[in-house]
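Show me any protein, keeping tokens residue-aligned.
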Amino acid sequence: MIRPLKFFLLLLIFTAYACKQEALKDYLPEATGPLSEVLIVADQSLLDSEVGDRLRSYLQTRQLGLGVDEPTLDLRPLQPSLFRGAIMRNRNVVVIDFDTLSRSHIKRNLYAEPQHIAVIKGRTEVELIQNIDLIGVQMLDSFRTSDLKVAQQRFKRSLYTEPRLKKLMSIDLTMPSIYRPGVFNKDFIWIDRPIENGTMNLVIYPLDNDRFSNRERFLEDIIAVRDSVGEANIPGPDIPDTKTFQITERIFRPYVFSAEVGGFNAAEVRGIWEISGYPMAGPFVSYIVNDTINQRKLVVEGFLFAPNQEKRNYLFELEAIIKTLKIYPEN
């Protein structure tokens, strides 16, 4: 009986060791790097050429609806010889180099997780440019989507829990605890957080399901609704003998895109708000969600006031919060 027992124990030890080694093999460290930044691994001569210009045309397009010129992503160049060790754990990476093969693709979770590495190879500058064109849009979407998910995970480290969202609007949002409740009623919710010399704001309100049914007047109707809601719910500074409230900026018309939020079709609107009767303005991003569960349109909007500051990252945080939207059946 002793030998079979010894064999059985040895088998258990070997199996446990093999499982541990397999787990270690599958382990990847957490990816690093700031949000909205991409590490570009390439010779400086390539970045100074038309190859670099074409890459920047995809990753550093002007962020629409900010009112100031800021690129969609920041690019950090790195010589290929320095791409080793901990820096290989960067979350968003582009590798460009000459090769005997012409190819372009995106690798995921190669050295860390979550990680997206766009690999662009070619025999000539012309081939490199062609390969950038093949995956340029996909690169931008991959990097932004990854950053959104990372931001949303970071919110959970210190979470703001607000049960009135579900009670009043039958929704939930994931947001960091620095946000504070402002206005809460069944027709309008306002949550905000302080920033240096300004504020970041989230507003939520329902609309009838047949709102915006006229496609030809879609943008005009959006502006009319925003201005009406702003006048009723978003006052400006107290000025004697003057009523001040938020409206949509008149000179630069908002941009409208199709989107998806929380699994629902939506319209994404980016533009500039201003205060009627007072010199105050800032960017907004608004999502008009087609809530098929409760047969309504639901507007979830982020806007910020950040004078003399870069605004892209603030608006990105508001977008990340909005895209955690969950909708429940109304009680």
About this structure: Residues 164-327 form a domain with the Protein Transport Mog1p; Chain A fold (CATH 3.40.1000.10). The first strand starts at residue 37 and ends at 41. The first helix runs from residue 2 to 26. The two ends are 67 Å apart (CA to CA).
